[in-house]
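Hi R.,

Here's the chain you asked about this morning:
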Amino acid sequence: MADTKLYSRHQAGGMFSILDREQFPTGRIWWVGSTVSTGSDAAGYGANPDAPFATWVYAVAAASAGDTIFLLPGHAETIGATSAAAITLALAGLKTIGLGGRTLKPQILIDAYSDTYVSITAADTVLQNITFKAGHEDIAMAVNVAAAGVEIRNCNLEENVATENFLIAILTTNAADDLVIEGCFITTVDGAETEAIEIVGACNRVIIRNNYIKGAYSVSAVSATTAACLDMQIVGNRIINTLAGDDLAGCVDLYAASTGMIANNMLYMEDNTDILTCVDSANLGRVNNLAANEYGQEAAFSATQSA
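And here is the predicted structure, written out as tokens:
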């Protein structure tokens, strides 16, 4: 019996691709690569990696709902628009996946303005294996999530140089149910940040898992304080808040009636006088969260243990 897992699709000029339809059940596949000399932002390009589009912005404009965009290893692009989104992801199910390891991870520089950002307004949007860098001082946010089912996986959100930073790396509206932020590397050395992740409104079933977060956050590294978020999972994160003197929920701060689970997180608070106050877990169940407040000391449980 033939294996129907793989299909061929003809493209302009007689070329074709072999696709795994279990992984890509619907939609077209587009390629973007600024390092490929044969690429161009023009009709007839983007359908294969030897003749890719030159920019992610152009690929998003060419795509349809359910498509997948691959950013080739080493791709670099600068985006920005004053008082507006630098790019808006408004196609349901659109995936943007960066190819390449840590040194070749595609890079999107958000530059020139403090009020520009990546806007996600369509459900089930995916961003994966992409580095987003701040190219301007005190950019209000890197990514704004205003849709359900969004996944941000294995992305870096960081400064370009020490004086260029995101005040908030990932910010949501109250429409961000079922958000997944997983395996991301969120760091800054500027010292003017408020949060790494801020969940705004009653966003339910949010998963924040296995991220590394480090910065001097004046509010909290992870914050969801405007409304109760139900069935949250905050699991397996490594969080370092280097803001000296802040010992009140500086790692995780949640609205009082929020529910879910906070488990297996490793936490560090610079100059924290009481590790029991570095997390406000609301009504989330707590399991095996360890916190420290001096580099030379071993961590202890961040809350009183159950009897």
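One quick note: Residues 180 and 279 are 20 Å apart (CA to CA).

Cheers,
M.
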